[in-house]
Amino acid sequence: MSFKAIFLDLDGTSLNDNNALSPALQEILTILKSKGIQIIFSTGRSFAGSLPFAKAIGGTDYIINYNGARVFDFKREIILHEATLPKPVLKQVFHFSNEYRYPPIFYHNNIIYTKDGIPHHYTCPGERFEVLCPNHDWVNETLTKALFVLPEEELADHLSIAYDFFDGASVSTSSSTYLEVMPLGINKAVGAQYVLEALKIDPKQCIAFGDQLNDKELLSLVAHPYIMENATEPLKAQFPDRIVAKNIEDGVAKQLDRLFELNYFR
């Protein structure tokens, strides 16, 4: 089997619970990159929030951020693709927030705007949090993604509500507590298609790993999808015969070791 590219989600997939690539995965990805395999991290994170992991394996040619809303080409040092939330959707975000009493969080470039400016996740160098000032005209700002942090037991119900609530946007989840709102039609598969077109690689030659609903379209695009044992149940139900070990058990590294016959874990 000739594999040419590997698309990797970060949180809950490639990263362990210490927000790091395991030594085994870091070494395996470095080895595969040296063999000419394209390694593409595909994440809901910002560019700065994902860059350290690309650097950990000696750099990558492309990186997909904000669930496919932004694709960066390191070879040409350009943004290959970018989409932002239209004004009507930004209005809907605030209406949703007012109705369900969860403050919105906005992402653009490497800035994350929250109600109090306090980080809600691990922050990487170059990524910063700022206050979502209530008196500012946010509807006329350029923003890439909106996010709501909900209690885990409420996420499924609010996701169902959000599907009907948001007109002109794509809605998904990226963790057991994150409800995400992206520009319409945007998902990780869209970002991947920009990369594959640039590389002239067929999805049949690609592998992808993921654990949340925001990975679904990308996993459906490639010929060789793999889902983590710790993945959300709806995703596991869609790919029941493609489940690998948990992220904290080095599931990605072990599966790549088998696929490429590296004998790293012998």
UniProtKB/TrEMBL annotation:
Annotated transmembrane regions: none
Signal peptide bounds: none
Protein name per the record: Cof-type HAD-IIB family hydrolase
Superkingdom, natural source: Bacteria
Recorded GO MF terms: magnesium ion binding; phosphatase activity
A cellular component annotation (GO) from this entry: cytosol
One protein family per Pfam: Hydrolase_3
PANTHER family for the chain: HAD SUPERFAMILY HYDROLASE-LIKE, TYPE 3, PHOSPHOSERINE PHOSPHATASE
